[in-house]
Amino acid sequence: MGEWGRSKGQGVYLVGGGVRDALLGIPNYDLDIVLEGPAIPFARELARAKGWKVRTHPRFGTAKLFWEDFSLDIVTARSETYEHPAALPTVKAGTILDDLARRDFTINAMAARLDAASFGQLLDPHGGREDLAEKLIRVLHPGSFRDDPTRMLRAIRYEQRLGFRLHPQTEALLLGHLEGLNLLTGERLWHELDLILQEAFPEKALLRAQGLGLLERLYPALAFDEWFAESFGRARELRGLSLSMRAVYLGILAWRFDEAQSEGCIRRFRMPGWASRTIRDVIRLKRFVAALVDPLLPPSRISERLEKLSAEAIGAAAAAADSPTLRERLERYLSDWRHVAPFLTGDDILALGVRPGKEVGAVLRALRAARLDGRITTRDQEIAMVREMASHL
Length: 393
Prior knowledge:
393 residues; alpha+beta; Beta Polymerase, domain 2; seven-stranded mixed β-sheet; two-stranded antiparallel sheet; 22 helices
């Protein structure tokens, strides 16, 4: 790729996180290539020559190449200016040095050449390698957080993921620009919060954000303490249940919300549908928590109350619940009860004499309830139960 660019007089560089993680010895398959020239024509020509697939984004001047299970982003080197604090940047083509100067932190502002003559040569105009050695997160200039307040959330995400610390001047700048978070749209804030929830241990960044005063700036009712951190840890014990962990973590964050606070949070972040549903389902579940711990409540009744809620909201409740009984029942639902289904199908039930219509659904629900409660365990028992029910319908 580097030689392909050199043959056309265009410098090609691996940039950002790929360089950072290579120097740290950390695997990274999310690679970004910067080209000192138009990215889309370059990507199209390279795709044709190599037999790769390409997807272009003309509005942003970027392209993505695909082959087998691998992909690569290619962008044109550019510079950025900000018309006012928290504005989206105005972009124009530039050099690789311009491109590195627009980045968030020194450790992300390095590039490696990809042409054969200089392959691997490091460009580090802002001291990123030294900051890697010192385990520091440092912005490139004093106006960095003013220009883009989302960098505050990224700073603590990288700090906690890598086990680094904020450079003292960077931390002072962050604390001095907290009000800039109020200027951001909900979508931009949500994007950064969602990225935190996708970290291996998001509680680290959230505890740090709480300590720095960021969370209350994002949404006044949003808080995080050791109780939440412990609940996140318990949530990871549910990994084998095919749950979206980012949604489970979000549900735990909303566990202490009342209904008004939950709706306010959804509006503030302009959350996508899956996130809104998770929070609302958590609030719904909290309304009947007391009933779920009734020792006389059979599995069928528990399942009936839970089956319309998202599995992630139930997982959040299981991780957040103080009651061992509630936790055990919710986990049992997720691991076993939700998967229970009758042996017989709707066609089987019709063949046994049940009239078409809503009665078929009622019989299927009755069969499932009987299986959940252990009253029947075999297909023959289901057939006998359906015949008995059919004689009374």
